[in-house]
Design brief:
Shape: elongated
Distance between the termini: 67 Å
Order of helices and strands: HHHHHHHHH
Structural class: mainly alpha
Helix content: over 70%
Radius of gyration: 19 Å
Number of domains: 2
Strand content: under 5%
Number of strands: 0
Largest sheet: none
Length: 191
């Protein structure tokens, strides 16, 4: 008889994994710990997810989209385009790396552990880049839109995000964040 998957069990696995990843990190969290925290047998995890990486992928995109939704909501409240852009960059490079006990660090840990044989899809990154590009575009004068073509700047911003995530995990907030944001705003706005 085929196994019937239950949404409550799936949700319990995801909740347990999120809490464990947030408190002890991706690498230090085992599937047996996730199962124990979810109140199920370890073998049951495989009925819902192929691997610990699959669990993280399931958590990471909605988490990042929620962070971006909050950032966009905050930014829309700011009329001045330079201040709005600075808020977006602060959210991307400072707030997201620190959120939920550096949850974003788990993504970096996971990606650092996969081998070339494991599937890595850039789909999630492309979705996130598109969202951030649109939010930043709303801050720029039309003559500066070319800076955002093909999401090139946003890809650079996400590469910088990786560095800020590592820095947040190791040292905390970057001491030069305000200067970095000011320089980036000047570059993007041309003033």
């Amino acid at each position: 008889m085929p196994q019937v998957k239950k949404q409550a069990v799936r949700d319990a696995i995801l909740q347990a994994a999120f809490e464990l990843f947030s408190t002890q990190g991706y690498v230090q969290t085992s599937q047996s710990q996730i199962a124990q925290a979810a109140g199920i047998a370890t073998s049951n995890i495989y009925s819902y997810f192929g691997s610990k990486l699959d669990i993280l992928y399931e958590l990471a995109l909605p988490w990042m989209l929620n962070q971006i939704d909050n950032l966009e909501r905050d930014a829309k409240k700011i009329a001045d385009s330079r201040r709005r852009l600075a808020r977006i960059l602060t959210g991307l490079w400072q707030d997201i790396p620190a959120a939920d006990n550096c949850f974003a660090y788990n993504i970096m840990q996971a990606l650092a552990t996969i081998g070339p044989e494991e599937l890595y899809s850039r789909e999630a990154l492309m979705v996130l880049e598109s969202r951030i590009t649109a939010i930043i575009r709303d801050c720029l004068p039309p003559k500066r839109y070319a800076l955002l073509e093909d999401h090139a700047f946003t890809h650079l911003a996400f590469m910088a995000l990786d560095g800020f995530i590592l820095n947040q995990r190791i040292r905390g907030k970057s001491r030069r964040m305000e200067q970095i944001i000011d320089v980036t705003c000047t570059m993007l706005l041309g003033r």
